[in-house]
């Protein structure tokens, strides 16, 4: 049975030793201020970040994403992928239990994974689309695949494959799976993760309580979590969340606006955490030969797209929008994404190079571009104003079109735009998700840009069945190089997850995928 990445496990042990050196303590509670409430924390039906980012607090997966996004053991102590890539075997740990004390068995794993891959249920079934059958024999679980899938290991560490109790779920009220899921959640679910749900007042508050049967040991050798409970309060307004934190009414607050990061970082009672993330801010460029109205599209010329990228001062945008908390994009994916390749920021500011490219494209005399933004977004307004000033010396007449979010999405799908604002954060610890979304033509026409590169498409398809890690790494390197040269986006910046935490709290982490991890959080007494 293959053991998981000894180097990463060694790093984890090093972190545990460091935590022990801090004399961490058990017991107590922490209060966490959230911007929005969860609707239903279910591995299959979670489809909003307030749900997605809480799933693994209640439901453990066979493998886990560590705090830095690496894959580490979970309910399974190891795994073995067949040489032909057509099956994966995992061994469950001995003595696993759910929060109610019932045994966690292979039957629960089969039930959970079959549910997760059912296309008639939640939106994430496609992540397990390569799975033909899930079976269990004692502690041995086998996934038989229809075709090799190099993402399968990462998917088994993804929220939608959280393990649920078959018997308890099936006893829940409801005529179908969705009704049972809601009833199961609202009644206080039986869980496999570090916490159970003690109470909940919809739209107001929620409390997680320590799962007494959780398996994973802490630095002191006793099972996690350290805290007895985590109390969540819902405070949509940024300023109010911060006021509550400064007053000591809450111990942590998420989604700190960039403009407040410096202030809170200087507060002696607080720690201003900027957790590495997979979030990128970019602007899709319509690369089609003609605009929606049939007029010739100047952005179809790659030299024009490259010129606009060179004419964009990313350092200035990072200062204006993120208050220097962001960093320039170096690839189509964030630097925290597996198989990222980007030795330096894409298209460093060079207005002279931009002018040269526009002259070569025959557009030295200038042209008009519409920039579609979200109405009411201060960040989008700042981006437009800055780009308008940066591009004006090149003769680019940038006009703004303000729309709501549904309209922006529809314009993206229909190709009725020139350039528009957008953002992304990975849900899966594998580059296939973001790469398919942004670059693969057959998936939403490369994030609506219409960019259609045959070599890129072929490489992406090959990478989705390539089980040799070295070959897959080479495929992704080449794809990122092709995409950078094709410039179907304005490559803007990456941003961290900004969370302000009381100095009395240690060990809370928000992972690069956004998950809130309280399993190793503790309060100094």
Automatic annotation (TrEMBL):
GO CC terms: ATP-binding cassette (ABC) transporter complex; outer membrane-bounded periplasmic space
Specify whether Thylakoid is a keyword of the entry.
Answer: no
> Which keywords appear in this protein's UniProt record, sorted alphabetically?
Signal
Q: What is one GO biological process annotated to this record?
A: peptide transport
A single GO molecular function term of this UniProt record: peptide transmembrane transporter activity
All residue ranges annotated as the Solute-binding protein family domain in the record: 71-439
Signal peptide as annotated in the record: 1-23
Q: Name one Pfam family in it.
A: SBP_bac_5
Keyword Transcription in record? no
Q: Write out the annotated subcellular location.
A: Periplasm
PANTHER family assigned: D,D-DIPEPTIDE-BINDING PERIPLASMIC PROTEIN DDPA-RELATED, PERIPLASMIC BINDING COMPONENT OF ABC TRANSPORTER
Name the protein family: Belongs to the bacterial solute-binding protein 5 family.
Q: What is this protein called in UniProt?
A: ABC transporter substrate-binding protein
Query: From which source organism is this entry?
Result: Ensifer oleiphilus
């Amino acid at each position: 049975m293959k053991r998981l990445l000894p180097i990463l496990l060694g790093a984890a042990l090093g972190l545990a030793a460091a935590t022990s050196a801090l004399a961490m303590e058990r017991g107590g509670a922490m209060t966490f201020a959230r911007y929005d409430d969860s609707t239903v924390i279910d591995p299959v039906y979670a489809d909003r970040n307030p749900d997605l980012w809480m799933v693994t607090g209640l439901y453990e997966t066979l493998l886990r994403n560590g705090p830095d996004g690496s894959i580490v053991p979970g309910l399974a102590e190891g795994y073995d992928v067949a040489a032909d890539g057509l099956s994966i075997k995992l061994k469950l740990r001995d003595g696993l239990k759910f929060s109610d004390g019932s045994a966690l068995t292979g039957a629960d794993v089969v039930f959970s994974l079959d549910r997760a891959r059912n296309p008639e249920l939640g939106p994430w079934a496609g992540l397990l689309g390569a799975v033909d059958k899930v079976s269990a024999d004692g502690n041995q679980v086998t996934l038989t695949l229809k075709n090799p899938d190099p993402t399968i290991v990462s998917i088994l560490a993804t929220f939608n494959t959280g393990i649920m109790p078959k018997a308890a779920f099936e006893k829940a009220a409801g005529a179908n799976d969705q009704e049972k899921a809601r009833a199961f959640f609202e009644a206080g679910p039986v869980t496999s993760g570090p916490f159970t749900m003690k109470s909940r007042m919809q739209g107001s508050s929620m409390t997680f309580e320590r799962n007494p049967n959780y398996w994973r040991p802490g630095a002191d050798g006793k099972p996690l979590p350290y805290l007895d409970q985590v109390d969540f309060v819902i405070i949509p307004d940024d300023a109010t969340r911060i006021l509550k934190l400064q007053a000591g009414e809450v111990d942590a607050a998420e989604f700190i606006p960039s403009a407040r990061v410096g202030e809170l970082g200087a507060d002696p009672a607080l720690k201003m955490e900027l957790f590495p993330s997979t979030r990128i801010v970019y602007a899709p460029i319509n690369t089609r030969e003609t605009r929606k109205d049939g007029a010739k599209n100047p952005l179809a010329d790659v030299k024009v797209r490259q010129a606009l990228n060179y004419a964009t001062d990313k350092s200035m945008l990072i200062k204006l929008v993120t208050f220097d908390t962001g960093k320039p994009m170096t690839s189509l994916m964030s630097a925290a994404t597996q198989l990222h390749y980007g030795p330096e920021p894409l298209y460093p500011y060079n207005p002279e190079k931009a002018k040269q490219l526009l002259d070569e494209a025959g557009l030295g005399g200038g042209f008009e571009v519409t920039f579609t933004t979200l109405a009411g977004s201060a960040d989008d307004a700042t981006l437009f104003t800055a780009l308008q000033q940066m591009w004006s010396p090149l003769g680019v007449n940038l006009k703004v079109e303000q729309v709501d979010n549904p309209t922006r999405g529809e314009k993206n799908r229909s190709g009725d735009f020139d350039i528009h604002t957008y953002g992304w954060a990975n849900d899966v610890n594998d580059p296939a998700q973001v790469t398919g979304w942004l670059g693969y033509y057959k998936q939403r026409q490369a994030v609506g840009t219409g960019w259609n590169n045959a070599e890129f498409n072929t490489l992406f398809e090959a990478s989705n069945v390539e089980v040799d890690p070295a070959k897959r790494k080479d495929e992704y390197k080449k794809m990122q190089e092709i995409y950078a040269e094709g410039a179907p986006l304005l490559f803007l910046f990456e941003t961290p997850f900004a969370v302000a935490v009381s100095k009395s709290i240690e060990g809370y982490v928000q992972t690069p995928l956004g998950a809130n991890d309280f399993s190793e959080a503790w309060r100094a007494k």
